[in-house]
Amino acid sequence: MSKIVILTGAGISAESGIETFRADDGLWAQHRVEDVATPEGFMRDPELVVNFYNARRAQAAEVEPNAAHLALALLEAEHHGEVVVITQNVDDLHERGGTQNLYHMHGHLKGALCYACDHRWPAPMVMAPGDACPSCTAPAARPDIVWFGEMPYEMDTLFDHLSQADVFAAIGTSGNVYPAAGFVAEARRAGAHTIEFNLEKSAVGNQFAEHRIGPASQTVSNWVNDLLQR
Ligand SMILES: [Zn+2]
């Protein structure tokens, strides 16, 4: 009855057609990260930021979960033990692929957050700057996204999961940088087997015991088939 904890990053959504902020064309290329992904940028120009996330929300609605998302949902459904998926992604491709035990550590595009009272509610497809909070009525709605300089959600709970992990897998996220680097260290302390899934092999000094190189749609599907002995 082993516990499998999985961290996913931009690489798993990229195969569905979601742009990452390292992409050199499209949505992100038209903006600086400090303008659209920091609380200071939002305070400076809320309209720009709200419109940026409206565009990302629309883009996410147009794409579909890929084989890697579906494989992780299958693993959760059929593994005789617990499967926890932690994602850095703000799209809903894991949910739409069928994953239920899921943490959005960086928030999600389908959420709105009140910066006056911290109330959260489902975001409309098109948010407007100054939308009123349904709880306190302040015109203080913002996308429920964890921006640079803000604290990721539920870190205590995530580290509790990692401290009980038998297997820790990182998919489509650089294993050598935050948060994967901290997560793999905690999982190793717990005695977990650690696996990194990436398009290319990471630099030296990598803490993962096993590396599977290639597109996540293939490598993750193969891994899940191995685990489920299908
Ligand atoms: Zn409020």
From TrEMBL:
Q: Which residues form a coiled coil?
A: none
Q: Name one Pfam family in it.
A: SIR2
Q: Where in the cell is it found?
A: Cytoplasm
| Chief site of localization | cytoplasm
Single GO term (MF)? histone deacetylase activity, NAD-dependent
Q: Which key words tag this protein in UniProt?
A: Cytoplasm, Metal-binding, NAD, Transferase, Zinc
Q: Which InterPro entries match?
A: DHS-like_NAD/FAD-binding_dom (IPR029035), NAD-dep_sirtuin_deacylases (IPR050134), Sirtuin (IPR003000), Sirtuin_cat_small_dom_sf (IPR026591), Sirtuin_class_III (IPR027546), Ssirtuin_cat_dom (IPR026590)
| Binding locations of NAD(+) | 9-28, 88-91, 172-174, 216
Instruction: List, separated by semicolons, the cofactors it needs.
Output: Zn(2+)
The residues listed in the UniProt record as binding Zn(2+), with positions renumbered to this chain, are: C114, C117, C133, C136
Q: Spell out the reaction equation it catalyses.
A: N(6)-succinyl-L-lysyl-[protein] + NAD(+) + H2O = 2''-O-succinyl-ADP-D-ribose + nicotinamide + L-lysyl-[protein]; N(6)-acetyl-L-lysyl-[protein] + NAD(+) + H2O = 2''-O-acetyl-ADP-D-ribose + nicotinamide + L-lysyl-[protein]
The EC number(s) given in the record are 2.3.1.286
Q: Which residues bind substrate?
A: Y53, R56
Q: Which residues form the Deacetylase sirtuin-type domain?
A: 1-230
Cofactor remark: Binds 1 zinc ion per subunit.
So which domain of life are we looking at? Bacteria
The catalytic residues are H106
Is Transferase included in the keywords of this UniProt record? Answer: yes
The record's similarity note reads: Belongs to the sirtuin family. Class III subfamily.
Q: What does this protein do?
A: NAD-dependent lysine deacetylase and desuccinylase that specifically removes acetyl and succinyl groups on target proteins. Modulates the activities of several proteins which are inactive in their acylated form.
What is written about domains in the entry's comments? 2 residues (Tyr-53 and Arg-56) present in a large hydrophobic pocket are probably involved in substrate specificity. They are important for desuccinylation activity, but dispensable for deacetylation activity.
Q: Which PANTHER family match?
A: NAD-DEPENDENT PROTEIN DEACYLASE (PTHR11085:SF4), NAD-DEPENDENT PROTEIN DEACYLASE SIRTUIN-5, MITOCHONDRIAL-RELATED (PTHR11085)
This protein is called NAD-dependent protein deacylase
Species of origin reads Sulfitobacter sediminilitoris
